[in-house]
Every structure is written in C-alpha cells, then in structure tokens.
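Re: Re: ligand-bound prediction request (bumping)

Still looking for help on this. To restate: I need the protein modeled with L-homoserine bound, output as structure tokens. Inputs repeated here so nobody has to scroll up.
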Amino acid sequence: MKVVNVGLIGLGTVGTGTLRILQRNSQEITGRTGREITVTRVAVGDLNKQRDADLEGIVLSGDPMDIARDPAIDIVVEMIGGDDIAKEVVLEAIRHKKHVVTANKALIAVHGNEIFALAEKHNVAVTFEAAVAGGIPVIKAIREGLSANRIEWLAGIINGTCNYILTRMEQDGLGFAEVLSDAQALGYAEADPEFDVEGIDAAHKLTILASIAFGIPLQFDKLHIQGISEITIEDIEYAKELGFRIKHLGIARSSDAGIELRVHPAMVPVDRLIAGVNGVMNATLVQSDAVGPTLYYGAGAGAEPTGSAVVADIVDVVRSMGDIGENSGASPVPQLGFLPGSMPDRQIVPIEDVETAYYLRMKVINRPGVLAAITKIFGDSDISIATILQKSHGANNTEVTIIMLTQIALESNLNQAVTHIRKIDSVTSEIQSIRLENLA
Ligand code: HSE
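Reply:
Sorry for the wait, this slipped through. Here it is.
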C-alpha cells in the first residue's frame, strides 16, 4: 500500500487534535482512502515544550519552511494561524507542489484569492474546512451538497466566544465583561479576544462562506463588521420580553442590489431553531432555492472537532491524489466551489442600502409630547413602527425607557431618524439600535 507523508505545521490545540485523530482512527482512515497516511514531520515554535501527543517516529523541526520544502512530504497542514508567516509557508509549500490543508480563516479570507491562483498554477489543492465553524462540515455542505441550488442567503452563528458570552449573559444575568473573562479562562477566545468580540473572526469566516455560496471573490475588506461589546443585559431582557433572542450573526444575502455581507448582533425570533443554539456551539442556516432551508450545527472550536475537519480535508486530498507521482493533481471540485471567473461580478451592497427591521432603546424624560416627537421623526424618515414598549423609572416615573421595533426600513433612513431623535432635549441616553432578522 502506498504511503502518504504528511507534515504538520503547528502543534497547539488543533495540531494536537489532528495528530491524535490520525493516529487513533488510522484503520478507518486507511479504509476510506486506500492509503496509509503517516505524519512524518512536525514543525513547532518551541522544540523543548512538553506536548500532550505521541511523537514517536516523528521528526520535529523548529522551522516551518523545512516542511514546506521537504521533497518527501505530500501534504502540508498549516495550523499556526495569523496571516503573515502562515502565508509565506503556504505559498512556499505550493511552489514545491505540495497539497495544503489549513485551519486558518484569516489566511484564506484575506489572501485566499492569491493562494488559490498559485495553487491552480501548480495543480495542487488548498483545502480549508476547519477554517469555518470548526468541526461542522459546512463548507463541504455548501460547496458540494448544495451544488444544485441557487443560494439566496445564509446566516451563521460562527463565533463560539460571542455565542457563549450572549448565552451566559441571558442565562445568568451577568454583564459582558464578566463573561468575557470566563470565556478566556475556558480557552474559547482567540489570543486577542477583540477578534472574537468585535466580530473580526466571524467576518473572516463569513467572507469564506459567501464566496462559496455565491461564487464571488473573497473580499474581507467589504464586510460590515460589528461585535457584541455594546450589548447590555437590558437589551437581552427586553428582547426576551418581545419574543426574541440576541445572537451574533454573519449574514450573506443575495438581492437585486448585489450581495449583502454583514456581521453584527441581531434579534432573532425565539422559535427559530438557530435561536436555540447556545453556549460555544456554532450553526449556519442556509436558504437555497431548490432544497429550501438547511441548518448545520455542531462544535465550532476545540482540538478534536477542528481536528476532525482538518483530517477530513486530508482524506479528500488523498482521495484526489490517485497514484502518487502519476496523477497527483488537485481535486476536480474547485476550491471555492465555482470555476474562477465563471460567475458574474456582484456589487457588495453598502450597509446604508441594506433593508431590515430594527430594535431601538432609549431613555427619555417623562413629559407630554416626547413620544409624539419621536414617532413624527420616524414617519418623516419613512419608517413604520411595529411595536412600542414603555417602562417607567424614578420615584415619580420621571424617566421612561422606550423600546421600539420597526417594520423593515432602509438603514440610511434609520440612521437619519436616530440623528434627529438624539437632538430632542428630552432624550437622555444614547440610542441603542440592533437589527432584527426574521430568518424566515
Ligand atoms: N475563537 C473562535 C470562536 C474559535 O470563538 O469561535 C474558532 O475559530
């Protein structure tokens, strides 16, 4: 039986999980590929660090380029993260005609177009299932399982840290900062937690999903990105009272105006399946023309869930290799699902032109005419109000919180209304606004 030699770059959480799965499930993996897959080399940052992994027979190296250039290696698995050294290593591996498997969302979202072009030139595969939603095979599902469909939109809970924080805030009545430290202690958050809570991590993942769904180039710089740091317990409680749950969503939607690409907190009706996705779990809901809605749920992070996606990619690459040395080209499935240049260019819709419903919260002084002034501004801005809720505060009900849900409105109209409402003297707080997504 022919042996496929794999080199792992990085032996952190994902690297360790990947190695463990390859070793433990070698019989099943060989049964599925007809090949023995052996990890022969591993590159690590610290050669002296104790590892929770069986490294017998594996050559350790301190320089990832040793693996990228090793003529004996067939597949390079990049698990160092970031988009600087990782990019150089991946490009070098491709130039040396090696297939690449990566778990690196930033690398693919920001440099994917360049990487795939080089891979095509050298006739090698670059696969990245583990880059989005950890162990959930959502890339394969969209790229292959839904290949008959025209995809209309997708909405995903694709950052486990944000979902964990919002869930704990709701379930335990805790504030944002308190839960963030818990998430860091439990090891869910990225090295820089801002990547999670400010939406960058989810934006990297959405960039990739949108390309696969719509056949558009990867264009991370065009996304609208908002995190969850402004969400308060009050918002979570009012959402609950109104029959919604606040989730951090990545949304890609095809409309007549183009493709919407946005990452932000959103109120979702509590009876949607995706609203019940709690804690660190991920889920992506995809609406397609032939099959209708499909939902992909599972662990979005962790050693073996993410390692599961990495190993599945290795299996795919090995299956496409044929007889090594004779027919070792890339898979017939295009990396991003569509042949490059096969789909028309689509405009990315500026966020001001997006239409959605909104939740608004503000504090006002309780005096006659305030509500009338606010609702007039909405009318003048062409925004129809769906629901108003008023909560009194103070000994003599001197202040009230007003909560409003709007009908679907243009974002630029909403911004204009908020600017005018801020100028009303009786409005005493900032105006919180959260988009409301029906996901129907
Ligand atoms: N920090 C990421 C998350 C891990 O919280 O989902 C996987 O990308």
